[in-house]
Write a structure and sequence with these properties.
The complex is a heterodimer.
Chain A: H1 4-27, E1 37-45, E2 55-64, E3 71-73, E4 80-83, E5 87-91, E6 97-100, E7 105-107, E8 113-115, E9 118-122, E10 125-126, E11 134-137, E12 142-146, E13 152-157, E14 160-161, E15 168-170, E16 176-178, E17 191-194, E18 196-198, H2 204-240
Antiparallel strand pairs in A: 1-2, 3-18, 4-17, 5-6, 5-9, 5-14, 7-8, 8-9, 9-10, 11-12, 12-13, 15-16
Chain B: H1 4-27, E1 37-43, E2 46-50, E3 66-69, E4 72-79, E5 86-88, E6 95-98, E7 102-106, E8 112-115, E9 120-122, E10 128-130, E11 136-137, E12 148-151, E13 156-160, E14 168-172, E15 175-177, E16 185-188, E17 191-193, E18 202-204, E19 213-216, E20 218-220, H2 226-260
The chains are: A alpha+beta, B alpha+beta.
Chain lengths: 242, 261
């Protein structure tokens, strides 16, 4: 049977994966701090005699786009966003550092700051704020509180990092980690904006266009598969002699 | 089977939840002491197509695997306890909390519930109750012949009795605070109850230790911003439509394959 059919199939599979990636981007259009993924494929030459002209398409790891998303003003003291590049640190379930752009902080009953279900990472581990009347997060990530009886106290410092984006990989939980799984060094130049949340960086129009393109691309591959099928049928008819 | 459909479906149901929250916020735009809800989304787990470190060819291995996301989920709804706008009513038993804190209300089963709604009235026995007849805790009884009631910023309730030049103190309103007020559970009727996540209530005198002071003759309105809700309604509607488009594109692709092959 012609390997042409399988070449077309590899193209169709690639478009299906691409479409899943775009569907995931669109589904996360409202997820704070979400970074969109871009499909990535390369050509793959099949080895062996008789396959000299056979080149399949093959999926590669999606590339994450780190362009900042739009900032949305919420007015809540514990909503923070990063201006420009940089990431917040959280402590994941295994006690390791992971990084995210989403900054909707909550305070748990023990007074520890959390991002989602994970503890927010400070320069010296998790940050406990205790009882407070008001809380303020400075542009360099310093957290200060107004104590119940009045008076200010510094309670901690966010760990803000800015590793090269090529060194970051998205984990199964959607958080970023470094390639080597080592902790990224603190970067003092990252600027935080309190009272704002960063939206997703998904561009709806771009995703819709990509969705249309992948659909058509898929159809072309299916046509090629059909042509391969017809060729094979024609060959069969010749052999049958009818 | 192509799971684009399933991914787009998660987007649809998440946007649907957001729409329901927006409509509840808008419906309560005139509810005294109402705090708006906010929906938080997070991306679902990523599905590994190929493990990082798998062999690329005889000599090289892949630095990263192929991971494809599986959509979005609602990670939680969160009450936003920002201050609502104040409205001056002049009614003696309308009290607003300026800053943090909650009134304590006794539920019919005796448990305490907490509220920001300061629209109080008195019942047939002269006890201060909320608009649904549930008593304020600690209970305060207003004498039948009281001419006027005054409530100080730190919660002392005084009544002017005929024939007595000095007003008499008839009670003290205490308010409570929580370590994590976003963790309170809303039970309807403008009431919240304590949960594991909110922590235990910390009772105190208004205006003291982080608690906001009281303002008599004023009501705290809802903190819903109509324009903000309308804008997020538009955004939600469009995001919903886009996810529908993905559903139909995935459907067309499979339909095409079915019919052509």
């Amino acid at each position: 049977m012609s390997d042409y059919l399988y070449t077309a199939m590899s193209g169709a599979l690639q478009s299906m994966t691409a479409q899943r990636i775009h569907a995931n981007n669109l589904a996360n259009i409202d997820t704070n701090g979400f970074r969109r993924d871009m499909e990535n494929a390369d050509h793959f030459k099949v080895d062996g005699p008789g396959y000299q002209s056979t080149v399949h398409s093959r999926n590669q790891a999606p590339i994450t786009d780190f362009t900042p998303g739009a900032l949305d003003q919420t007015g809540r003291d514990l909503d923070i966003a990063i201006k420009g590049s940089g990431l917040f640190t959280v402590i994941d379930d295994n006690g390791n550092e992971a990084y995210t752009r989403s900054g909707s902080i909550t305070v748990d009953p023990e007074g520890v700051l959390r991002l989602g279900s994970m503890a927010l990472g400070g320069a010296n581990g998790p940050i406990a704020v205790g009882e407070f009347q008001a809380i303020n997060i400075g542009s360099n990530g310093t957290i200060s509180v107004t104590l119940p009886g009045g008076g200010q106290a510094n309670v901690g410092q966010l760990k803000l990092v800015n590793p090269p984006t090529t060194d970051l990989v998205k984990g199964q939980d959607g958080l970023f980690r470094t390639q080597t799984r080592d902790d990224a060094p603190e970067d003092l130049n990252v600027t935080v904006l309190s009272g704002h949340l960063e939206g997703s960086n998904v561009n709806a129009i771009e995703e819709m266009i990509a969705n249309m393109t992948t659909s058509r691309h898929f159809e072309i591959q299916v046509k090629a598969m059909k042509a391969a099928d017809e060729n094979a049928q024609a060959g069969n008819r010749l052999v049958r002699g009818s | 089977m192509n799971n684009t459909l399933a991914i787009a479906k998660t987007g649809l149901s998440a946007q649907d939840t957001k729409m329901a929250t927006i409509s509840n916020n808008l419906a309560n735009v005139n509810t005294a002491g109402f705090k708006r809800d906010r929906v938080n989304f997070s991306d679902l787990f990523y599905q590994i197509e190929r493990q990082p470190g798998a062999a690329q060819d005889n000599e090289n291995e892949l630095p990263t695997g192929i991971q494809v996301g599986s959509g979005v989920r609602v990670s939680g709804t969160q009450k936003e306890f920002t201050q609502g706008s104040f409205e001056n009513t002049g009614n003696d038993l309308d009290i607003a909390i300026v800053g943090k804190g909650f009134f304590q209300i006794a539920q019919p089963n005796g448990d305490l519930a907490y509220s920001r709604n300061g629209q109080f009235t008195k019942n047939s026995e002269g006890v201060i109750v909320n608009s649904e007849g549930l008593p304020l805790v600690p209970n305060i009884q207003i004498p039948e012949d009281a001419l006027s009631i005054s409530i100080s910023t730190d919660g002392i309730v005084m009544a002017q009795i005929p024939g007595d030049p000095a007003p008499a103190q008839i009670g003290q309103i205490n308010t409570v605070n929580f370590a994590n007020d976003a963790g309170l559970e809303a039970i309807g009727g403008n009431l919240f109850v304590e949960t594991q996540a909110s922590g235990a209530p910390i009772e105190g005198i208004p205006g003291d230790a982080g608690l906001g002071s009281l303002k008599q003759g004023t009501l705290e309105g809802s903190n819903v911003q109509v324009v903000e809700e309308m804008v997020s309604m538009i955004a939600t509607q469009r995001a919903y439509e886009m996810n529908i488009k993905v559903v139909s594109a995935a459907d067309e692709m499979q339909n095409f394959a079915n019919q052509s092959l």
